[in-house]
Amino acid sequence: MNTWQALFIGVLQGATELFPVSSLGHAVLVPGLLRWGYRQSDPAFVPFLTLLHLGTAGALLLLYRREWVTIVSAFVRGFLRGRFEGADERLALMLVLATVPGGLVGFVLEKALKGLFASPRVAAGALIVNGVILLGAEWLRRRSERGEVGRAEQEAEFKPMSEITAGAALVVGVAQAMALIPGISRSGVTMAGGLVAGLRHRDAAEFSFLMATPIIGAAGLLEVPKLFQDRSPSAPGLPVDLAAAVLAGVAAYLSARFLVRYFRSGRLDPYGWYCAALGAFALGFLR
Questions:
Q1: Which terminus of the chain is less hemmed in, N or C, by CB atoms within 10 Å?
Q2: What is the mean pLDDT of residues 137-158?
């Protein structure tokens, strides 16, 4: 991967990470679709993508800095007291609970999951699955909405993020674990899980964004040091990697700002159709 390819992947990853279309799937597919002479099986590829994700996590920390101060303070209070009370403390506990499944699956299946990053066809197939999940979640959501009631009244029937239950948090956490497969969108499946669990669209999106930070941070601690090991002599240097991560963070910040507004009235359907179409095209193209 040359310098311009690395910077392009940085922008692509940041722009697609928070949209429900799988940034990992795009990062694995693009080199194949554009006929780059780059092997996704390169040992530095996954650590490089993880560094880009840290740029995304930094953007989310910046965007939700006040919320994270409140959440961390609330968790410490609840932990020291031995019980969690009030909306902020409950939300902090639910975020911890929702992070557990992804962390366990990533730890146990790390080697097998990394092998999938070398297969653009796997990513293309997973994108189709991701599209079906998004479309299915919206279909289930519509079944639970009253047909003659306006959209604002429909959304009022569902729970805000502060009222998410332990069972719902685990549903969203299991959904997040699925996104370790390239082509399955972390934000997409966690939003879908949030909708199925009864959250409003905007709350499902914001809960997904908050969940992203801890698991991305943990992955970064494990993977980024590997950028300094077994590095190809032709690979861009660390300054290029860091520049790509900064670009990913800027793109993610802008994406998050847009999506928070979009999900006041928007749905997952357009992204579901996009993922299914891209996956089908890629399967036909990558022969």
A1: C
A2: 63
Cα–Cα distance, 27 to 19 (Å, whole number) = 14
Residue 199 φ/ψ, nearest 5 degrees: -80, 155
Report the alpha-carbon distance of residue 275 to residue 184 in Å, rounded: 9
Does this model's pTM top 0.85? no
Of 157-166, 263-272, 273-282, least confident by mean pLDDT is: 157-166
Q: What is the pLDDT of residues 80-124, one digit of tens each?
A: 988 888 888 989 999 998 888 887 887 777 677 767 766 788 889
Q: Assess contact for 44 and 231: CB atoms under 8 A.
A: yes
User: For 207, how many CA atoms within 13 A lie in the half-sphere containing its CB?
Assistant: 42
Q: Lowest-confidence range among 90-94, 180-184, 279-283?
A: 180-184
- In this structure, the number of other CB atoms found within 10 A of the CB of residue 78 comes to 18
| Cβ atoms within 10 Å of 182's Cβ, excluding its own | 27
| 199 beta partners | 159
Place of tokens 């392009």: 8
Please state, in angstroms and rounded to a whole number, the distance separating the CA atoms of residues 80 and 167: 24
- Write down how long the chain is: 287
d(CA 257, CA 63): 8
Range list of β-strands (E), 44-193:
none
* Tokens at 124, concatenated: 């293309």
Q: Helix axis angle, 120-144 relative to 269-285, nearest 10°?
A: 160
C-alpha 153/C-alpha 235 separation (Å) is 54
Type of residue found at 216: I
